[in-house]
Amino acid sequence: MPDSTRRGLLIILSSPSGAGKSTLARRLMDWDPTLRFSVSATTRAPRPGETDGVEYFFKSRAEFQDMVMAGEMLEHAEVFGNLYGTPKGPVEAAMAQGRDTLFDVDWQGGQQIRNSALGKDVISIFILPPSITELESRLRGRAQDSDEVIRGRMEKSLSEISHWSEYDYVLVNDDLDRAEEKLRTILSAERQRRDRQVWLNDFVRGLNREFERR
Ligand SMILES: Nc1nc2c(ncn2[C@@H]2O[C@H](COP(=O)(O)OP(=O)(O)O)[C@@H](O)[C@H]2O)c(=O)[nH]1
Ligand SMILES: Nc1ncnc2c1ncn2[C@@H]1O[C@H](COP(=O)(O)OP(=O)(O)O)[C@@H](O)[C@H]1O
Predict the structure, then answer these.
(1) What ranges make up the beta strands (E) of the chain?
(2) Domain 10-213 is classified in which CATH homologous superfamily?
(3) Span of the secretion signal (predicted)?
(4) 104 three-state secondary structure
(5) Contact 30, 118 (CB under 8 A)
(6) What's the pTM value of the predicted model, to 2 decimals?
(7) Binding residue positions for ATP
(8) Mean pLDDT per 10-residue segment, the chain (214 residues)
(9) CA–CA separation, 90 vs 162, rounded Å?
(10) Which ligand is nearest to the CA of 134?
């Protein structure tokens, strides 16, 4: 439930391509429809079935650079030869409404969001595949990318994985149901921590007022 007295959390999911972050993000949003997905802008071509404004805002390089120059991006980075970035406005609006936002960004985006003015409300989660063989078979099984694209993503997988220790939580996406359950647990616990802080702030303000009245 949106609540203007509390801040929204920024929940960052990163992983090597194919480890399952989009799948897990979709499941989390089915579980909790109040979660908002941060739709990134990208210069990558749409895959079959992808819709502009749903999975991504598909942009030309010039349009993307204009957004960057206009200061509209919370973060942006080049990944696999394409530009990706997070539009800032919708994130700030969600934060102000106390709505939690999910981000599917690479390690560079994770670092930039953590170091931004919104960094104190970030919860970051790194998702590992159970094995490199399974990672490749998921990329192939998704049947969305050419052999060359899959090869490029596999080549970059270890450098993405090398950033795991920068994240608050790391989980292995072996069994999908179990991985989703772990994500739900993380989110529930972090929300409780956030809400406790809001509640305690109010409570201590009350103690102060009581003290002044005496
Ligand atoms: N820094 C950054 N990375 C992004 C953003 N959106 C997506 N990515 C990352 O770009 C990479 C490629 O994403 P995509 O083309 O959808 O391929 P997929 O991860 O294989 O489904 C993934 O690591 C995403 O997490 C963004 O807004 N900023
Ligand atoms: N735990 C899992 N077990 C088996 N297949 C999975 C699992 N998680 C995701 N997948 C499948 O692996 C492929 C890649 O998942 P996806 O969510 O697109 O990865 P990412 O967003 O990290 O690139 C998809 O076809 C998805 O259905």
Answers:
(1) 10-14, 36-37, 40-42, 56-58, 73-79, 82-87, 101-104, 122-128, 169-172
(2) P-loop containing nucleotide triphosphate hydrolases (3.40.50.300)
(3) none
(4) strand
(5) no
(6) 0.92
(7) 15-22
(8) 70 97 96 96 94 97 98 96 96 92 98 94 97 96 89 94 98 98 97 87 94 96
(9) 30
(10) 2
Q: Which atom of ligand 1 is nearest to the CA of 77?
A: 1
Mutation test residue for ligand 2: of 142, 150, 157, 183, the one with most atoms within 8 Å of CB? 142
The owner of tokens 């009581």 is: 210
Q: Is 22 in the pocket of ligand 1 (CB under 6 A)?
A: yes
Ligand 2 atom with the shortest distance to the CA of 179: 1
Task: Say which amino acid occupies 65.
Answer: Q
Q: Say how far apart CA 169 and CA 132 lie, in whole Å.
A: 20
The domain locations on the chain are: 10-213
| Residue 90, token pair as written in the block | 């919708």
Q: What pairing do the DSSP bridges indicate for beta strands 169-172 and 122-128?
A: parallel
* Cα 8 versus chain centre, distance: 13
ipTM of the predicted structure?
Answer: 0.97
The structure tokens 């990318």 sit at 145
**Ligand 1 centre and the CA of 41: distance in Å?**
10
Question: Ligand 1 within 6 A of 111 CB?
Answer: no
The H-assigned helical ranges of 55-175 are 61-69, 88-96, 107-114, 132-142, 147-161
